[in-house]
Design a protein that fits this description.
In chain A, 61% of the residues lie in helices and 7% in strands. Chain A has 11 helices and 7 strands. In chain A, the strands form 2 sheets. In chain A, strands 1, 2, 3, 6 and 7 form a 5-stranded antiparallel beta sheet that branches. Chain A has a two-stranded antiparallel ribbon with strand order 4-5. In chain B, 60% of the residues lie in helices and 10% in strands. The chains are: A alpha+beta, B alpha+beta.
Chain lengths: 471, 517
């Protein structure tokens, strides 16, 4: 009898448990339906180029992950997925969620503080800004797209970002600025040399910066960045200097009269400046004189535990005045030097224009006889040939520089350093782990309650049986 | 032997004998002792019921804490570390400097009010952008946001030292504590707690974990937008070159205007922070520094040259208007010079008549008194002002002299149409060149405005925070509950085993009573 009772109870137990589990599953399915979690696609981005952890891109600038939601990237992505008419850029932007992978204790790290009085702790440098190098990008399906469309859209977004990133953060070199600002023919020779010197020195500086950043990159036939920098520097030091020398010794010019009148004008302008500055210098001297009379000797007052200087700010003011005077004197000296420079240039040019040097000029002793026009033409032609040769050298150096930069960019920013994993689709499906978890969460309590009820019933029935037996 | 029997039968009672009566009262041990063996035997008999009851109570003890923990679950809080990373602009009248942000100042140097993170503008934008399925009101959202500032290391150390002093009852501690100036890092922490509802209403809205994180992200992005909108200076350079109209104005006047426009452009560029100046465009490859060099070169080589040509050849289409224009300028500069000279004289008068402080110092050993004068701060200021006046005067005199020369050479003008035509041609080229530079700088600035200097004023970590698993926290309570349930079950079982014994004893007592009656 007891045996059948046992199996009878056991059967009931099994039935109850199965029933509870089924009820729990049905309930969780219903809840799952009512409150579905969002459908989304997810892709990851990993940046491993040099400087990614500091937040700097290969071209030295700070990069930002916000570019992923910029107009360019979104526009490109929508175009490529052919969804431009169904989704506006703003809607797409609102459904993208970019998450950087930060350490989970970053909040406590930020708030942490190691007590000064605790010498045992190994003091570590607190982080400044933590730049994540791994990003998770989630695209919520707020537009009722199909699975393929959603993952395709996210893939396009990531690829567009990769392209825009490559374009924006690659190192570039400037094309020569001066060419479309200055009409080259209208410039005097000296001015042309100045212009070339400016652009070449800018390029050389940039080449040196790149060489400092990457000393190992080498291309056959070109060398490295430092080689390009050396070439540009020697262009400045040798070719341009020799052209300059040619101009000053031979006093070459495209239009001598005009140059002379320009120099005269400059002399008069500088003359005005010199006069005004000289007057200022005199006034400053007087001011310093008055101040010296007023200023005290320096007195120190010493007491038992301190030494006070009774002086106010007079030494500072006096120093400031002396500095002003010094600066004014320097300005005057510079102006004098420039005026002399122009006067020399005028004297040299006068040789070509055939004008005899000023008879009253005490420096006329080194005036030379005028040069013949044919000679002048020949020298001008030589100069222009040399100048265009220098220009050709510069262009060759720039072309090589660009090749090096392309190689550098290809090495720094490529598919490995800006790695994009393809998008995965996440939707609440009955076969997913999320649903299984929900089932466990809902069916668990249901089963527990059922078990309690079952046990209670079992206890009560057995008690009743016992009472009958005892009777 | 009758006498012996009679002696035995009769007990002789002495008069002084004591009679003791002893009543026999030994209890029956079997009545009061409850044998444990019997109790356990009873328990074993009843095990079919009470064993299951024990299991039931343990199960209940296990489940109740879990249920309670689930009901009292604390809502999730997510936090983000926000780092402000703009440059602070300080304008001391003469120069504009930019420094990296180290504390909590706004980009224009004023104090940054962190409560703006909870302002309606920011929160309503964030909610609109987040597109949550459940409507959370701005007020409810504001109540659940918490902002914590972070003290700098220095401030914390100071605090620590002062609190140590207070602990050791140092008398100067409180005064020092009052004078403590606390500085904060350029980072702060924003926390958002789930569960949005009015204080009075019952209805509380709960978002899912991922929605909560998304919302915090949106709030911080909206705050970034707010900072940029309020503080970023996104003005492009103005085009003042268009003012130079060769049709209406003479060559010299046009050149003046173009020069002024280029000067403005140069000042505009120079007032930008260093990192903006060094930004290399990814479209053209220029930096602003390089563009400025070309600008300077252009002014020197092209414009100065044309200016000198026009000046020396006295190029003027309508000389009279030009002369009167320059005369007017000369007159206004002369007037300014007069004013400046007046200033200088006034200040000189003050300086001459100024009585500086004399101090008397008595020297101890010799008993004499030494007197000396020191200059007051006001006097020093005046002296420096006077020096600056001289500088301004020099600049004005240079301008006046230049104007005078120009007018002088214009007066000597001879009619020369060829030169005028040539000058106009070159002027057109000049203006085109100036425009080209302006265009390039403008394009550069447009590109810079979309770079991170002007689009990202703060960086924030992603929302961190995990809802603690209910199970893990309740484990201890569950164990206690299970133990309590087990104890209760065993106790009931024990009592159940005890009860029959008590009944038996009562029956025996009753039997015993019946017997004695």
């Amino acid at each position: 009898m007891a045996g059948t009772k046992k199996t009878h109870w056991f059967r009931i137990f099994v039935i109850v448990m199965i029933g509870a589990f089924v009820a729990g599953t049905v309930l969780s399915a219903v809840l799952f339906r009512i409150n579905p979690s969002k459908i989304y696609a997810r892709a990851t981005l990993q940046l491993t180029f040099d400087g990614a952890a500091d937040g700097t891109a290969p071209n030295g600038r700070a990069y930002s992950i916000r570019d992923l939601t910029s107009d360019e990237v979104i526009g490109l992505a929508l175009e490529r997925s052919s969804l431009g008419d169904r989704i506006t850029p703003d809607e797409l932007r609102a459904s993208l969620y970019i998450q950087g992978n930060y350490p989970s204790d970053i909040v406590t790290q930020a708030m942490s503080y190691e007590s000064l009085l605790d010498f045992a702790i190994n003091r570590e440098v607190k982080y400044d800004i933590y730049h994540p190098t791994q990003f998770t990008v989630i695209l919520y399906n707020d537009f009722s797209l199909k699975q393929g469309e959603l993952t395709g859209l996210l893939d396009n977004v990531m690829n567009a970002y990769k392209e825009v990133f490559t374009a924006k953060y690659s190192a570039t070199v400037s094309l020569t600025i001066g060419d479309d600002v200055f009409e080259a023919d209208s410039l005097e020779y000296a001015q042309r040399i100045d212009l070339m010197r400016t652009t070449v020195s800018q390029l050389a500086l940039y080449a040196r910066e790149m060489a400092a950043k990457d000393a190992t990159l080498r291309v056959d036939g070109i060398g490295g960045f430092s080689d390009v920098a050396v070439r540009l520097q020697s262009l400045m030091d040798n070719e341009l200097e020799s052209l300059n020398a040619r101009i000053s010794t031979d006093a070459l010019s495209a239009d001598a009269n005009r140059l002379i009148s320009q120099y005269n004008y400059q002399i008069s302008v500088y003359g005005n400046q010199r006069d005004a500055q000289k007057k200022r210098l005199e006034s400053l001297n007087e001011l310093i004189g008055t101040y010296e009379k007023q200023k005290s000797e320096v007195i120190y007052l010493s007491t038992a535990d301190s030494l006070t200087k009774i002086d106010g700010n007079s030494s500072q003011t006096y120093d400031a005045l002396i500095n002003l005077r010094k600066a004014t004197e320097e300005t005057i000296t510079q102006i004098d030097a420039r005026i002399n420079d122009y006067e020399t240039k005028i004297r040299n040019l006068n040789r070509y224009s055939g004008e005899a040097s000023d008879a009253d000029d005490p420096d006329a002793a080194d005036a030379v006889t005028a040069v013949s026009p044919e000679d002048a033409e020949r020298k001008k032609a030589e100069f222009e040939a040399a100048f265009s040769a220098a220009g050709a050298k510069r262009d060759a150096a720039v072309a090589d520089f660009r090749t090096l930069l392309d190689r550098y960019n290809a090495r720094e920013i490529n598919d490995d350093t800006v790695a994009v994993a393809s998008a995965r689709y996440f939707a609440p499906r009955y076969l997913s782990s999320a649903f299984a978890l929900k089932v466990v969460r809902t069916a668990g309590p249901v089963c527990a309650v059922a078990l309690i009820v079952f046990l209670a019933v079992l206890v009560i029935s057995r008690r009743r049986e016992e009472k009958e037996l005892l009777k | 032997m009758d006498n012996k029997d009679a002696k035995i039968d009769r007990i002789s009672i002495d008069k002084d004998a004591n009679i003791n009566v002893v009543v026999n009262r030994t209890p029956d041990p079997a009545d009061d002792v409850i044998e444990l063996n019997k109790v356990f035997h009873n328990m074993k008999e009843r095990r079919r019921v009470y064993a299951w009851l024990l299991v039931l109570l343990m199960l209940v003890g296990l489940c109740v804490p879990l249920m309670l923990a689930q009901m009292n679950q604390k809502p999730l809080t997510v936090s983000s570390v926000v780092t402000l990373k703009y440059q602070v602009r300080r304008d001391n009248g003469k120069k504009i400097t930019y420094t990296d942000l180290k504390d909590l100042s706004a980009p224009d140097g004023s104090r940054l009010d962190l409560n703006e993170v909870k302002s309606s503008y920011v929160l309503s934008n964030a909610l609109a952008y987040a597109g949550l399925p459940k409507a959370v009101s701005v007020n409810n959202l504001r109540r659940n946001i918490r902002i914590e500032r972070i003290l700098t290391e220095d401030s914390r150390r100071q605090q620590e030292v002062v609190s140590g002093m207070i602990d050791s009852k140092n008398s100067g501690a409180y005064a020092q504590a009052q004078g403590l100036e606390l500085t904060y890092e350029n980072q702060f922490i924003v926390s958002l707690t789930n569960g949005f509802g009015d204080e009075n209403s019952q209805k509380i809205i709960y978002l899912t974990d991922s929605e909560l994180r998304f919302l915090l992200n949106q709030i911080l992005d909206a705050y970034n937008d707010y900072l940029i909108r309020t503080y970023a200076d996104l003005t492009l350079p103005e085009d003042k070159i268009a003012l130079a109209d060769p049709e209406a104005l003479d060559v010299l006047e046009c050149l003046d205007l173009v020069d002024a426009a280029l000067e403005d452009l140069k000042v505009y560029c120079e007032n930008k922070p260093q990192n903006v100046l060094e930004y290399r465009s990814y479209v053209t490859g220029y930096t602003l520094t390089e563009l400025l060099e070309v600008l300077n070169l252009f002014r020197q080589e092209r414009m100065d040259e044309l200016y000198s040509f026009a000046r020396t050849e006295a190029i003027a289409e309508v000389p009279e208007t030009l002369i009167s224009g320059y005369q007017y300028k000369l007159d206004s500069v002369d007037a300014k010079i007069k004013v400046q000279e007046g200033n200088i004289n006034t200040v000189q008068g003050i300086l001459d008549g100024y009585q500086n402080e004399s101090i008397y110092v008595s020297v101890q050993e010799s008993g004499t008194t030494k007197s000396a004068t020191t200059t007051t701060d006001y006097y020093n200021q005046l002296i420096l002002e006077q020096a600056a006046n001289y500088e301004t005067l020099a600049d004005l005199e240079i301008k006046a002299a230049n104007y005078r020369d120009t007018i002088g050479s214009l007066r000597l003008n001879a009619e020369n149409d060829d030169l005028v035509a040539k000058a106009n041609e070159e002027l057109a080229g000049c203006i085109a060149g100036a425009r080209a530079i302006y265009g390039k700088i403008r394009e550069q600035m447009k590109e810079i405005f979309s770079a991170s200097f002007y689009t990202e004023y703060l960086e924030h970590s992603s929302a961190q925070g995990k809802s603690a698993s209910v199970f893990a926290k309740a484990v201890r309570n569950m164990a206690i509950g299970a133990v309590l349930g087990a104890v209760a079950g065993v106790a009931i079982w024990f009592i159940a085993g005890l009860v029959p014994e008590f009944r038996l004893r009562r029956e025996k007592e009753q039997q015993g009573k019946a017997v004695t009656e």
